[in-house]
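Final report, Chapter 2: Outcomes

The project's central promise was a pipeline that accepts a single protein chain and returns its three-dimensional structure in a standardized token representation, suitable for archiving and comparison. That pipeline is now operational. To close this chapter, we reproduce one record exactly as it appears in the project archive, with the input sequence first and the structure output second.
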Amino acid sequence: MGWKIFTTFIKDTGEITINEELVKSLGFRDFIFVEETNFCESPEEGELYISNYKGNLLIANADLLWQFTKTQVSKTEELFTGRFPNHQIISVNLGYGTYFSVIDCAKKIRVREVGDAIYQDIGLPLPEEIYLLSQQLIDNDELIEMENELTEDEIKNQIQSVLAYETVFELTKRIFGKRYDELELSEYNIKSYKFQNFVIDSVNDYGVKAEMQFIK
């Protein structure tokens, strides 16, 4: 489980003009254009990569997902659903726990946050989750080892963690036609526009840095 992915996918947007105006319209604050480069699904904090990919929009930012998992609807989420009211907005985060959010036609239908425990579990299981539950997520040898070393609750949480992790990759099939971890190396070379927020560089508090990137 070595992947880091901090990416939001907006399905069936067509070709979108990517510029600072688009960035501001989606609620990002103090980001300026840096360069054209390849898409990076796991940007550093304060970086933003945006790409058109076969009629879908790819947006990578380390902190964007938290704008979709707040208890109250954030201003950023309002701007995303206002700009794309009839689209699927799929936001995933791997690297510091496992998180995903799915918005369909401006309605948030699923949020799941799994780390050492299940932090959020909102909405009904997605088709991808239902499919995965019918599969053997942990092989027998590993399961036997877990049964010897972990409590029943710890095993259940481990299974939920694997389920969430695999669901993230199953969700990427909605955009790429296959799982993101199954792409050929050449398929990762997606033209992208990089933007960056340099204002947060002097701030040490992670939570403050994360929130400073978005309008309120």
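Archive annotation: The chain has a mean pLDDT of 94.
This record, like all others produced under the grant, will remain available to the consortium after the project formally closes.
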